[in-house]
Structures
1.
Amino acid sequence: MSAAVVTPMFAGLGTTELLIIVGIIVLLFGASKLPELARGSGRALRIFKAETKGLMDDDDKTDAQREIDARNAEADARRDTDFDAQHPVRRTDDPGTPGSTR
């Protein structure tokens, strides 16, 4: 029996083909948008990786650990609510608000 050889997706592409693909991408998005596009793709992959790792970690947690996490999340939510109640947001761009320049 012969073992099947797995080749990467780009294994059949040569230098010329890759340069043509890169040239088309530059024409479509523009040279100024490429760093922004790469940055956004990197962030999306990082978030995806973190979420999949979080799902794996959730599978490994015991019921006690899940209960502790739930209590901590409730405490954080209460702390945020208390802070918001003690420090209301004051808008100064509304007409008639003291300190407004309108």
2.
Amino acid sequence: MKAFKLFFVAMVAGLILLSSDVVMAQCAMCSATVESNAQNGGNETAGLNNGILYLLAMPYIAAAIGGYVWYKKYRRKENVELNMRNEKLHLN
């Protein structure tokens, strides 16, 4: 069953990667405005690119901060002694 799940996940991931198409991620109005501005020597394109990079970076920064907080909160302390029995645990 575990092998089937792994195969299924790999198959879905492969199909998603193989079926991707090149898309234009801007509406026609935005694309036309940015292209005409770039041709006329404007610097609006730099602002648009910076905005895209800003929006791209925010989820990664949020995940990194969450990971850092989780690491600091739940990492194992060095001088804590665990008092565990040496017996095997039988769950049946």
3.
Amino acid sequence: MIVSTTPTLQGHEITEYRGIVCGEVVIGAHLGKDILASFTNLVGGRSNAYESTLRETRDSAMDEMIEEARKLGANAIVGAKFDYTVIGQNGSMMMVAVSGTAVTAD
């Protein structure tokens, strides 16, 4: 399945718009990752623990959106957009949402 952030697909003609599709995943904070991230904040650098979790969460949201598009009979998604939101008490959880328009393209 082609997924694009653009409204068109270069080299393809959109023949049918199937509808808006979304994928949302909420993850909770993990004590071990919080400790590692706190240490990283003290010494500087990137938090591999959080980056890995965020990447997995983003991929899961994408998979959910793609599955929804397949159910609509689409073979591509255009206009894909990601949103990241901190939710829960004390910002203890993060939601990753992705949405786009499911289409059929030649």
4.
Amino acid sequence: MDSFETKLMLALLMPGLLVIFFTRVTFHHIVGLILTVALIAASVYAGYTHNWLLYVADALSLTVGFWYATRMVNKARQHAKGE
């Protein structure tokens, strides 16, 4: 995985998917965001992310994933109140 294009594609997809996954597992979108940020921080510390463009892609994906997870949690809460 030394290709920059591969790293960029993964940076655009994986953080958002991880936020959604952790939100589904923990039932809380803030916890999902914190766990994903911790994983990204560990990868930066290990030296896998070393370009500012990858940081921007991670942040963009985190933002979109957090938006979707928040929307998902709010819909689930409304559905639970309605029944």
